[in-house]
Amino acid sequence: MRRLKNKLTECKSDYANLEAVATEAEWLHAGTLLAMEAKYVSQVSSLEDEHRGVVTAGRAACQVAYAQLTRSASSSKVAS
Predict the structure, then answer these.
(1) How far, in Å, CA of 8 to CA of 30, rounded?
(2) CB-side neighbour CA atoms (13 Å) of 69
(3) What is the rounded radius of gyration, in angstroms, for the C-alpha atoms of the chain?
(4) Distance CA 77, CA 67 (A)
(5) Distance between CA 43 and CA 62 in Å, rounded?
């Protein structure tokens, strides 16, 4: 009977240790997910900023080209 009580105590201790390890693993997992999310959000934000810059530069280039084209067309009409 004493051996069974000792074995039961040992099993309860093992179970408590497993629960503690599982809880720690859950915290580590949550921390890893948060870190990955923060990195992803940062990368997306960076890409969005880069995209905005490219769009702005493209728009400016188109406006310059249009202005040059309309000036060139005006000059051609005046010369004719």
Answers:
(1) 33
(2) 6
(3) 34
(4) 15
(5) 28
